[in-house]
Design a protein that fits this description.
The chain has 19 helices and 21 strands. The chain is an alpha+beta fold. A hairpin with a 3-residue loop joins strand 1 (13-17) and strand 2 (21-30).
Length: 698
């Protein structure tokens, strides 16, 4: 999907506005392939002390000079925005009709970005169709004011933006096109070392998998040299380009300059390793086995041996000029080919299909373009209408008699259905009143359908929380095992001392002796997993997917809400699970409780972990082994032990893992133990965990 349709072979101005240079290029398609006929590069002042407006004017002047030098006539523009400004996610979608993918993507992005959809530009691309069905989808979004900030550099140049790409996507697409990334069965990475940022793109099995932008680049190396030798930034930049090199590991050879550069490169390597580790932890991730370098930073001497030594991975310099011919006006690209990947990837979209074809053109520009096209259409329509009227006026005069006869015939038909209106056309027909009544009924039905739609689209899933619970369950052996009877979502609240509990449900067996002397915990169940009332039991994991709105209100509006006579109070959002299950021993129950206290799951947006585990030893009871085949009966009264019920069974009393198996279990070998565990979840960022001294693992 692209938010604005583009045509191959359509000529556009291709500009890359970088931190240290502005580049422009143009391709021509020949029988032998693509020929680079224009390539111009203009360095710009790269001083971090400049004000934002001053930077803007410097870049604007550089673009104007470049357009004049290249003698550009077309006004359609193609450029790219930095990767750190873009929201990128890859999601696996279920096997639905492809026309519904757009709705799912917009819903997913709306859940991830706290902005109105009218304030962001969205695009997506289907990367793969897994064997099991469904889609692997790349979802991309950016705030429109960020795009406007980059477009403001081009104000007054009479350029019309047509495609807004992303810098790491453009460089990756070019290396993919010219055959540099030919290892389809490997996991490889493209690292673009820029002046202010470093972009990482990871590919596995020939498909784009992940990207990350690091705020470390060549300017950090220049600044480190300037600080070490107490020289101006411009002089340090010149020294870096002429004499700079990556550390060799020998202090005598490296000197102060090599040590200063090494400090920056060490930070860069640490971030690269973190990015690779994160990719390995993702579903479908893997170990990166090869790195391709591009960008101005890879011209630093000794950079390839240095990265190979510290990363332990095969590192190569990309060859972006392979597979194309270079015309006389494009010879400047030969001097520094490593800098050309982004602008070549942008220009490629004029002629060929690329690996990633994302267009983040702002919605307002699309709307302006549509209005302009509509204005032209209406102008042509009015001209056509005027010509038609000029041709039909003489004919119209001759047909007046026929028109009058037709009007009289229609009046006769009106009298047949409503004689009163035929006699007095100014009165309101009863048929119109009936129509209004029918329209009101239709409106009521539409409101009900919309309410159901809002409930469907606002439902909440608990897949991450379920995965966390399952990861804590002890592995099953021939002698030990843990089974879940039911899981229900709950809201856990700890009121202040002396404060009465709000309306909730007192769940037996949840307070330990220590808790019984304090203010009790308020646990209130809500619709979530399954849907059977205020407190929901889902029957294991089979009941998933009740409706739940993300604005913490009730799932569906009541009749009183629609009429405005009564408002249903909002329900608090559930924050935990109540787990009921069976186990073969009391020891494995304690192991499960201990695992829950330590369990955590690393997610792209942070860490999911269990804040509190509420478990009472008094909730553990003995039940026959046959209860495993009717697990719900173990928690219901009125049945006999022979039928898997709970009546007549003995409570364990004091629960102690050090006592081993209980007497009942040892005597018969056919008993199980019921348990009730309540957990409260919390989501925290990795930064807050690091500051608090805690850790999280997946």
């Amino acid at each position: 999907m692209s938010v604005y349709t583009t045509r191959k072979g359509k000529k556009r101005v291709v500009i890359e506005i970088g931190t240290s240079a502005v580049r422009l290029c143009e391709f021509k398609k020949t029988k032998s392939g693509l020929q680079l006929i224009k390539y111009f590069e203009k360095p710009i002042m790269n001083d971090f002390r400049m004000e934002e407006e001053e930077r803007k004017e410097v870049r604007k002047k550089a673009v104007a000079d470049l357009l004049k030098q290249a003698k550009v006539k077309t006004r359609k523009l193609m450029l790219a925005v930095p990767g750190q400004s873009v929201f990128v996610r890859i999601r696996s979608l279920p096997p639905v009709a492809e026309r519904k993918v757009d709705q799912i993507v917009r819903y997913e992005i709306q859940q991830q970005i706290p902005f109105d959809l009218r304030q962001i530009a969205i695009d997506y691309q289907i990367l793969d169709h897994p064997e099991g069905g469904g889609y692997e989808v790349l979802m991309v979004a950016i705030k429109t004011d960020v795009v406007d900030k980059h477009l403001s550099i081009l104000e007054g140049l009479k350029l019309q933006p047509d495609i807004i790409d992303v810098i790491p996507f453009a460089s990756y697409s070019w290396l993919k096109y010219n055959g540099e990334l030919h290892a389809h069965t490997e996991c490889v990475a493209v690292i673009d070392l820029g002046a202010s940022t470093t972009n990482i793109v990871v590919e596995r099995d020939g498909i784009f998998r992940n990207t990350r932008t690091l705020n470390i680049g060549g300017n950090d190396i220049t600044q480190a040299i300037a600080d070490t030798f107490n020289i101006p930034f411009e002089e340090a930049e010149k020294i870096k380009c002429e004499k700079g090199f990556a550390p060799t590991g020998n202090p005598q050879i490296d000197g102060k300059g090599g040590e200063a550069i090494g400090r920056v490169l060490n930070r860069l390597v640490n971030e690269i390793q973190r990015s690779f580790s994160y990719f390995r932890s993702l579903p479908g991730g893997g170990q990166v086995t090869r790195i391709y370098l591009c960008g101005g930073g890879c011209a630093l001497r000794n950079i390839v041996p240095y990265l190979q030594r510290v990363l332990g991975i095969d590192v190569r310099i990309a060859q972006p000029l392979s597979g194309i011919t270079i015309g006389p006006d494009a010879q400047a690209v030969v001097q520094h080919p490593e800098r050309s990947c982004v602008v070549l990837g942008l220009a490629l979209r004029n002629w060929e299909a690329t690996a990633l074809e994302i267009n983040l053109i702002p919605p307002r520009i699309i709307e302006m373009r549509r209005r302009k096209e509509q204005a032209i259409y209406w102008a042509l329509s009015m001209v056509t209408l005027a010509l038609i009227m000029a041709s039909v006026i003489p004919v119209h005069a001759a047909q007046n008699k026929f028109v009058k006869q037709r009007i009289e015939e229609l009046r006769r038909y009106v009298r047949m259905y409503d004689p009163e209106v035929a006699q007095n056309p100014t009165i309101v027909s009863p048929l119109k009143q009936e129509l209004s009544k029918a329209q009101a009924e239709i409106k009521t039905l539409q409101n009900k359908v919309k309410a159901v739609d809002r409930a469907v689209y606002g439902r909440r899933f608990w897949l991450d929380e379920m995965s966390l619970i399952l990861s804590a369950r002890p592995p099953r052996t021939d002698k030990d095992g843990v089974w879940f009877s039911s899981i229900e979502t709950v809201f856990i609240q700890q009121p202040q001392a002396g404060q009465p509990l709000p309306g909730g449900r007192n769940i037996p067996g949840l307070a330990t002796p220590a808790q019984s002397q304090q203010t009790p915990v308020n646990i209130t169940g809500f619709p979530g997993i399954g849907s059977r009332g205020p407190m929901v039991t889902g029957g294991g994991f089979g009941g998933g997917g009740g409706f739940f709105r993300r604005d913490n209100t009730s799932p569906l509006p009541t009749q009183q809400q629609s009429t405005g006579t009564q408002q249903t109070p909002p329900l608090p959002r559930s924050n935990g699970f109540r787990i009921m299950g069976l186990a073969t021993s009391d020891t494995i129950i304690k192991t499960f409780v201990d695992n829950l206290k330590k369990a955590s799951l690393t997610l792209p947006e942070g860490v999911l972990r269990i804040k509190e585990v509420i478990f009472s030893e008094a909730s553990v009871q003995v039940t026959p082994w046959s209860s495993l085949y009717n697990a719900q009966s173990a928690f219901q009264g009125g049945a006999t032990p022979g039928t898997g019920g709970f009546a007549g069974q003995q409570r364990l009393g004091a629960f102690s893992p050090q006592t081993g198996q209980t007497a009942a279990f040892s005597a018969t070998g056919q008993n199980l133990f019921t348990f009730v565990i309540t957990v409260q979840f919390e989501r925290v960022s990795e930064q807050s965990i690091a500051q608090s001294g805690g850790g999280a693992g997946s």
